[in-house]
Amino acid sequence: MNLRWFHALLILFSAALAVLFGVWCLGQYRDGNGAGSLVAAVAAFGVSVGLMVYDSWFLRKTRTL
Length: 65
Fold this sequence. Notes:
The protein is mostly helical. 85% of the residues lie in helices and 0% in strands. It has helices at residues 3-30, 35-61.
């Protein structure tokens, strides 16, 4: 596995971790822990989408290397 694919895999795992954190935050919000948990969940899902966009851009940019 070369460095390009390792970087892409690491970004993919980071996006998955952000989704899991967002789901956990939604569970905390449902249990009544305040609006901060909802804000954290929305932010985590936003970060996950951003990481997926970055991963796609990175793979396109480095395709010819």
